[in-house]
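Assess this one:
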Amino acid sequence: MPVALITGASLGLGRAVTTALARRGWSVVVDARRANLLDDLVAGLGAGSVTAVPGDVADPAHRTALLAAVQRRGRLDLLVNNASALGPSPLPHLRHYPLDELAAVYEIDVLAPIALIQLHHHLLVASSGTVVNITSDAAVQAYETWGGYGSAKAALDQATAVLGVEEPALSVYAFDPGDMRTQMHQRAFPGEDICDRPDPESVVPALLALLDGRPASGRYRARDLRVSADPAVIDPVAGQVCL
């Protein structure tokens, strides 16, 4: 049975990917800061398929707990670094960005993924595994007030590209899902109607196509990947925001 570790799995894309992989027969270790939402996820999919480890990926002790949970499964085939921090809402211009909050964004969006890759490297190499770092178009496009989150994702993109060169035994991807109707996206646009954005489930087939096809390491956008309907992607994610 293949094993995946997915961070930020309580809502949004992380929850949707967890659901799809569990329904494909994967064993999935997940984390998020809200334990009650993880409990709901496990209840829906079954404790035999999903192991929840609540906590913050910025905490080294929590990352060690994730490693222990993965080691109990005996292998690791896939690491999805999905947990992200947006920063203050409304998003500030860089000239006004509180540096402590900017540091927190980088801690979660850049340093935590690298730390998790370091911790799980031996397990990933042993299974010729895959690393997926969730990125954003804000990493490559200059949007006003998106300097904090965008620059952090740009740093993650570059780290992903370097890892793709340094780690030929692994498949290393930066995956850009595009805009989605999520709580984080709503926080980026407070008070606005984001109902025109697609649900996270609509992106999952593209990510599964990437995992199944295992092309060369690199940066991939969901809209550029050829996909087919996947029966594992069924239910809407609980807790999505739509004004």
